[in-house]
Design brief:
By secondary structure, the protein is α+β, with helices and mostly antiparallel strands. It is 56% helix and 16% strand. A six-stranded mixed beta sheet has the order 2-1-6-5-4-3. A hairpin with a 2-residue loop joins strand 5 and strand 6. Helix 2 packs across helix 3, helix 2 packs parallel to helix 4 and helix 4 crosses helix 9. The chain is globular and about 65 Å long. The two termini are 40 Å apart.
């Protein structure tokens, strides 16, 4: 490929890079794997004759989708051997993303967990159609199915997700308020305050990946969740602090132990009460958050 063609390929790739990363991340739930997929997409893209490409965005999305599907299948084996519950890698997002309700919901931790229950092809079709409004014909080319089959898959995936996703739209302000109440009650040891902000059926999912201490199964019920938090806080050696941040398009807490990042806590809020808590402690999943946090502190 000559310099002119390489420059044209680079410009096109960079113009769509954010879109391609988000497609890969929503399909994989891992920023690290999404970056690897983008690298693979780039290597294939520079071999393409751009003169034969009618729609560069669609072509790049097609390559990214296929590479993501390949990686999803290898990740399945990794997840089967994973210690304890698996949570998506938290992704720091700009505060203004939280104001874009549709985008914030599409990458929320709660929805990403629902997407984990879809088959790889269902997940690809759902993400491309629902999050990015890609046409059925373009999706068909990306997943090697007929447009008619893709419509059926999209309908099935949509029904599956709708049955499991949070009901109603919660504003960032409502989520922030619930998290602030939770944090305040936790810091002051206000057990009744914790019970008041947690829904009776709240579910806590913690991901330590076998490296950091975490519950090996989800904990259900406000009283059990409170007991777990209070019991673990009593064992902490050092100073535990939490600061507000925005993760996966939604308000969250960045938890530090003696100034070092211990984990990221995201939540699902319904009716002003927390119905889901997602605590990522696996250090491998916090590398990106740590590096981006350091950059903002400089």
């Amino acid at each position: 490929m000559n310099d002119h063609a390489t420059n044209a390929a680079t410009e096109a790739f960079l113009a769509h890079r954010n879109l391609l990363f988000t497609v890969a991340y929503e399909m994989l739930g891992s920023a690290a794997d999404a970056e690897d997929v983008l690298q693979e997409t780039w290597l294939r893209w520079v071999e393409v004759d751009l003169g034969q490409v009618r729609d560069q965005r669609a072509y790049l999305v097609r390559i990214t989708t296929r590479q993501s599907l390949n990686r999803l299948r290898t990740m399945k084996r990794r997840k089967e051997a994973y210690v304890g519950p698996w949570l998506p890698e938290p992704l720091l997002t700009a505060p203004d993303v939280a104001e874009d309700v549709e985008l914030a919901e599409s990458v929320s931790m709660a929805l990403m967990l629902v997407l984990e229950t879809l088959s790889p092809t269902e997940r690809a079709v759902f993400v491309l159609r629902e999050a990015f409004d890609v046409s059925y014909d373009e999706i068909a080319a990306a997943v090697d199915k007929s447009p008619a089959a893709v419509r059926q898959i999209a309908h099935r995936a949509r029904q599956h997700v709708e049955a499991r996703r949070p009901r109603g739209v919660v504003s960032p302000a409502e989520t922030r308020a619930a998290l602030e109440s939770f944090q305040r009650a936790l810091e002051t040891g206000d057990l009744q305050g914790l019970l008041d902000v947690l829904a009776p059926e709240v579910v806590l999912v913690s991901d330590g990946g076998g490296v950091k201490q975490a519950a090996l199964r989800p904990i259900t019920g406000a009283e059990k969740v409170v007991r777990m938090f209070v019991g673990n806080l009593g064992k902490v050696q050092g100073t535990l602090t939490a600061e507000p941040t925005v993760v996966n398009g939604n308000p969250a807490l960045l938890v530090r132990l003696n100034g070092e990042i211990d984990g990221v806590m995201a939540s699902r809020v319904e009716g002003a009460r927390i119905t889901g808590l997602y605590y990522v402690r696996n250090p491998e999943k916090l590398t990106r958050v740590e590096s981006e946090t350091r950059l903002t502190l400089r």
